[in-house]
Amino acid sequence: MTEQYKIFETTLSGTAVGNPFKEIWLKATFTNGSDYYTVNGFYCGDGQYKVRFMPKAPGTWKAATQSNDPALNGIDLHCECAPARPGNHGRVLPMNEVRPQTAETSEDIFHFAYEDGTRFQPFGTTCYAWVNQPENVQEQTLKTLAASSFNKVRMCIFPKFYTYNTTNPERYAFLGSEEEGFDFERFDPIFWENLELRISQLDELGIEADIILLHPYDKWGFSKMPKETDEFYLNYAVDRLCHFKNVWWSLANEFDLMPWKPVEDWEQYARVVMGRDCYGHLRSIHNCVKFYDHTRPWITHVSIQRIDVYKTAEAVGEWRQQYQKPIVVDECAYEGNINFGWGNITGEEMVRRFWEGCIRGGYLSHGEVYIQYPQIWWAHGGTLHGTAPERIDFLKQIMVDTPERVAPLKLTPENHEANWDVPCLCREDDNSYFLYYFGFFKPAFRTYELPDNCTYAIELIDTWNMTIEKLPGTYSGSIRIDMPEKQYMAIRMCKV
Fold it and tell me: E strands within 324-386?
């Protein structure tokens, strides 16, 4: 019995002669009588082939294999699917693709939901090369993630060669080594089995795997494979991984640092991914300096790097308006102490950027680069040492408690004077909720003209010290709120 949104898998025996990775094709179309999904099987070594399927509805699913290998052709497959258990919500998708759309749901285009309609708010972190580390480091990374609040991880398939990350991994996606060269026509099944194990373990922790398919930080030749090899690799990667419900596709990390790959190639790679992924997982592409055209229809959400040394999350509102999609600032700089400006902001600044981005209607990803430790989280995983993670957890709880369909406050002539200088997240349709964030400002007091005929409970939130102080009584009309003259404060107003 296979649980809804989990993986049905069968292993078949076929030819091991020649190069089955390139010469043998295998597929199956699963149906429950009304829905049809065609999946591609794949070779996993030693004459063994796998067919996988992620059933999206309970009931009986049947298929028959098709293949150019007679031993694999015409095999009947049968999958009994049980309903999803509590906590299993399916894939993450843009909210407007999941929920029925009305005039009241226009904000849905900027947010995410699971397949069953449950709201999903990504609070991500970055561990680019954690699956390329020794087994003990991989296991420690999972323990650290299990104790954190992060629910999305940016991670690469290919290893990363860059400052502070220069060692060779034990295994690679392709067979071979740096010393002996790589066979770009044959994959290493053991590497892929470990990658699948780690993705599955993330899923058990409720964490989405944001899989970076290509990147420029390379000494092995993976970033400069010819186009046909790129497509060969992408086909195999998607065939193996698309059946995991927690997978997101990121075509590239910092695509613009690979100028030898023109935009036409990236557009083709997107078509390859979409053509092999019958389920339609989330898709993005990430920049260093030059933005990709995120209006492209295949891009489901904007994965973006800061545009300025200082201005980062403050631009979320502009990007929302420009792209009309969920905005994820996947690289807002990292907490740490290295010599590069992208990796030495304070924990305070990291948390401030998270709050700014969330209040402005977007999402962010964390990263950490403290040079004094044997593993640097941003690349290796291992253990977290910074001050930001627990405060991001505090913010996550605040955001989880926000009502549905909150949105950044729209300034009008009537409310401009009181609200122009700080961001606010609110429910304007019924004036039931307001969340103001003051960042590095530290007023002694604030005055507000509350909406007519409404009474509010008000809380002062210290976002750094992680405290919530409920002010006595209730409030309406013209009010003054005394504040502690501290940075990183917030005010929450809830209608009673």
Answer: 327-331, 335-336, 363-366, 368-369
